[in-house]
Structure formats: C-alpha cells, structure tokens
Amino acid sequence: MIIAVASGKGGTGKTTVATALAQALAHADISVSCLDCDVEGPNAHIFIRPTLDHHKNVDLLIPEVDADLCNGCGKCAEVCQFHAIVVLGGQTLVFPELCHGCGSCTLVCPEKAITEVPRTLGILEGGLSPDGINFGHGLLNVGEPMAVPVITQLKSWRDYMDAEVVILDSPPGASCPVVESVRGADFVLLVTEPTPFGLHDLRQAYELTQEVDIPAGLIINRDGIGDPGVDVYCQEVGLPVLMKIPLEREIGQGIAQGKTLLEIHPEYQDAFQTLYAQIADLAANGGDR
Questions:
Q1: Fewer beta carbons within 10 angstroms: which end of the chain, N or C?
Q2: CA nearest 145: which of 84, 179, 97?
Q3: Pairing of the two strands 114-128 and 2-6
C-alpha cells in the first residue's frame, strides 16, 4: 500500500505524522519505506535518522546543438512546448533551465544536429534507520526550478518502493510537485491545523485528491487552537477525520529537538496502528469518494 501524506501549507505537522506512522508500522514488524518527496527542503531524515549509504544522481537529458550541422530551420523550436529552444538570426539557442527533457527536438531535427546530454538536477540518498525503516529522499540542487523529475526518480528507486507499506512525505501546497508525489498512491492522508488559514489550504489539498481520484482522510494537528471551521468543512464534504493531535508544549519542544511523536509520547504507537487499519479499510472501500 502506498500512503501519501500531504498538506495544503507548510508547517502543519505533515512530517511529524509521516515519520510517526512509519515508526509505528516498523515497530509492529510491518515492512515499511518512507520517502521524503519534499526535495526542496527534506527534513524527515532528522527524525528517522537513517544511515544514508546509497546515493544516485538525478540526471535530465537536455539537447545539445552541433552548430556545424544545424541550418537554423527552427523545427526544434516549433515542437518545444516549454520554449527551451529558440532560433535567433539563424542560430539555435538552448535554455537548459526550461527544458523538461521530452526529446522532441532531437526527434524532429532533419539534420541530426541535436544530441541529448545529461544535466544533473540533484541527488537521491537512501538507507536503513535504526527502527528498520527503509528511507529515501531527494535533494534538488540549489537554484534548480524543476522538482518534479527528482520526485519521479525518487519514486522509481526500486530499492525504496519495495515494501509492504510505502509512506510518501509530500511537499506542501497543491502544485505540480505535490501532484507528482501523490500520483499512484492508494490513499492520501491530509494534515492541517484548525485555523482559517489551515482550512483555506485544506480546501485546495482536498480538491486535488478529488481531481486525481484518490481516497483521503484527515489528521487535525494542534487541536485546541483556532475555530471549528475545519470540522464543519469535513462534515460538509464527507472527509473523515481520523485523528486529532492536541496542541501541547511537550510535543512542540520534542519536535524542535528532533524527536518523533512516538518518542515523545509512546502511547501514540497504538493510535497510529489503529490509524493504519482505518486507512487500509478506507482505501479498500473507496474512502470518501
């Protein structure tokens, strides 16, 4: 089963939930992988504490033009949907940061003047945690605009997708990297806080799960602050609230020290195992759809 943990905005406790769920399943002798797909700012490794002894470059094939063969016909620029290649004054120019690596320009070039060369976007790192969690994350190079190829290759890293349960810690928001993270998941576990701001972003995240047709459930973190707006919304749209984690100074201080929720409150072990059973049932029966 693949469970994606997502949130409409950052700072809601998404990684706290993802790491606690992974740890609870590992303690129950369930084979589990945890992949941190927030490749622009991964932090799940701080809590999982894996030995990162596997590394892999993330390369994207981009066009390279042989000026001696190119006649400036412009067919490559016409086919590029991302404006990554243009012809000016008979000279063909490539903008690597805009290229999505589709290879169309190479295919249409009548002079065979374009070849594809690798450009490194980031790296993947993986390893085993002391709890037995198979952990992996991606690191996007500073200044690189495209997170999606790194997430795609992280999810294709076979060693880290081969488990009974795979937990994907998604980036915040509802943009392309989030869509790529939740794509192929059996269930999306949303995390929010009970505030108007949390409700605003929860709406976007929940609508995304409906668009990609994946069943979803919600964990309300920092319960006890804000207002009942999130509960009312969940009742209106039929989104099941699977757990509420109260606002506690002890939890906040422990998280700031790099502790997992289960290390702060071991009694959450049973709660997260129950949560997994609920998720399995909802995923099998179509959940909130």
A1: C
A2: 97
A3: unpaired
Q: What single DSSP character describes residue 97?
A: G
Could you tell me whether strands 187-192 and 51-65 are parallel, antiparallel, or unpaired per DSSP bridges?
unpaired
d(CA 70, CA 95): 17
Is 80 exceeded by the pLDDT of residue 43? Answer: yes
Residue found by looking up tokens 């943990």 in the block: 5
Token representation of residue 240: 């099941």
167 contacts: CB under 8 Å, gap ≥ 6: 3, 4, 5, 18, 21, 22, 32, 33, 34, 35
Distance CA 36, CA 18 (A): 9
In 158-267, at which residue ranges do the beta strands (DSSP E only) sit? 165-169, 187-192, 216-223, 241-246
266 Cβ neighbours under 8 A, 6+ residues apart: none
Per DSSP, 225 falls in state B
CA distances, 76 to each of 96, 107, 117 (Å): 14, 9, 16
- On the question of pLDDT at 124 being above 60, the answer is yes
Over range 246-266, report the average pLDDT. 95
